[in-house]
Structure formats: structure tokens, C-alpha cells
Amino acid sequence: MIWIKEVSKSFIQGDESIHALTNISLHVKRGECVVLKGSSGSGKSTLLSLIAGLMQPSQGEVRVDGKEISKLPEHFSAALRRQKIGFIFQKYHLIAHLSALENIMTPLIPENLSLHVLESKAKAVMEQCGIAHKAKMRINRLSGGEQQRVAIARSLINDPLIILADEPTANLDEKLSHELIATLEKLKQKGVTLLIATHDPLFFDLGFVDQIIEIHNGELIV
Ligand SMILES: Nc1ncnc2c1ncn2[C@@H]1O[C@H](COP(=O)(O)OP(=O)(O)OP(=O)(O)O)[C@@H](O)[C@H]1O
Ligand SMILES: [Mg+2]
């Protein structure tokens, strides 16, 4: 489902080049759950962004469901993302002045669905994430953990084949973290492919995780 072949990513900053990822190869099979662990700055978010086609690798290939997302023009990578990928961003990227419900509906706006269908889909994922009671609240009135649950609900609205989760429990207490893990386990049972970047030890001893991969200074440890 996710094929990464000899991928490197560097960022140029001034006259300095930052090597965020070096020669990464990785295969996540359809329906697998993979945990990517590594300390801060090791390259986890960069790797997830490359898989989602949100940035291009400096070298190498990234394939998602058979398509080379790293080579697609923005219009097509956006469509692939919208149809197949749910992304839980580390920094949420929610729209502060919109309500929770409106934020959750945004990924489906280009699909031209009726407002009624959009709302019922949004309400279903809000229920699933335990945030339905905050549907009408503006994002900037919600707590960090509530915003995180809105971000998780938004990632599920397109019924994705793949979920890329970047530190999904960073702002959740232990009870909510366990609820999130239960939601992820149910998605895995439905056949969703999961890649979770985290340093939360709760993820390191779960029965439904197929692989734990460690990244250090932009390189996978084998
Ligand atoms: N847009 C960018 N421009 C310059 N450097 C960047 C950029 N994005 C990431 N980096 C650098 O790449 C390296 C990897 O960053 P990344 O965000 O992928 O790490 P991370 O493992 O997700 O860390 P954290 O656990 O803190 O979220 C870091 O040294 C970071 O400073
Ligand atoms: Mg990160």
C-alpha cells in the first residue's frame, strides 16, 4: 500500500543544507498497522508529509496504492489524498474561526456533496471520536485535546484507505489516548492501513501493531 524506495529529503536554509531523511526504504502492506518511533527532529513528520504528497523527496520514490505520489502534479496528489488518505497533523491545521463541524466537513467540499450528506458524515465521525457535543463550537474555544479529536474526526471523513497519524495522542490524557487507540484498532479491523508516528510508549506494546520501526537522525534503524 505504501512503498518508499531510497528516499532522501534535504531542506536548504540559507547556505546550509539540513538532511531530514537519508536513504529510507519502507513497505507498509495493505491493512497493516506500523508505528514509527523516534525522538524529536528525527524526521517522522517529514516522512509522513512525503507519503501524503505534501512535499516532494529530494531523491527516491514514494508510491501510494500503486501511484507514484512523489511525481504527481499538485492537482492529482490532492485528489489522491482526498480519496485515499486521512492525515492527522501534529499541529492540527484547523481553521480557528470555523466550528468543529465545519472544520470536519472541509476535506469533502471539493466533492460537491449536498450539505445534508456532508453534515451526516461529519456527525458520524464526530460520534466516533467522542466530540459530537462540541459540533457548533468555534475551534479557538476548544481545549487542546478537543481540537485533537476534531482533527482526528476530520481525517476520517473521507473513509480513507490509509491513515497517517502524526503524534495523535500528544494532547490527550491517558483515558482519551486509550479511546483513540481503540478507534485506531477498529479502523485496522475494517482493513484501513495505519502509519502512526509517535514517541508515546502506549503504542509500543499493542497487539494490533504489526511493525515498530525506529528512525534516528533521518535514518531507519534496522
Ligand atoms: N520546512 C523545513 N525547513 C527546514 N528544516 C526542516 C523543515 N521541516 C523539517 N525540518 C528539519 O528536518 C528535521 C526533521 O524534522 P521533523 O519535523 O520531520 O522531525 P520529527 O521527528 O517529526 O520531530 P518531532 O517529534 O519534534 O515532531 C529537523 O531537523 C527539522 O528542523
Ligand atoms: Mg513531528
From TrEMBL:
One of its GO terms (biological process) is cell division. Its EC number is 3.6.3.-. It comes from the Bacteria. Keywords: ATP-binding, Cell cycle, Cell division, Hydrolase, Nucleotide-binding, Transport. Pfam families: ABC_tran. InterPro entries: AAA+_ATPase, ABC_transporter-like_ATP-bd, ABC_transporter-like_CS, ABC_transpr_LolD-like, MacB-like_ATP-bd, P-loop_NTPase. One of its GO terms (molecular function) is ATP hydrolysis activity. Gene3D superfamilies: P-loop containing nucleotide triphosphate hydrolases. CDD domains: ABC_MJ0796_LolCDE_FtsE. GO terms for cellular component: plasma membrane. Residues 2-222 form the ABC transporter domain. PANTHER family: ABC TRANSPORTER ABCH.1, IMPORT ATP-BINDING PROTEIN. This is Cell division transporter, ATP-binding protein FtsE. It comes from Sulfurospirillum diekertiae.
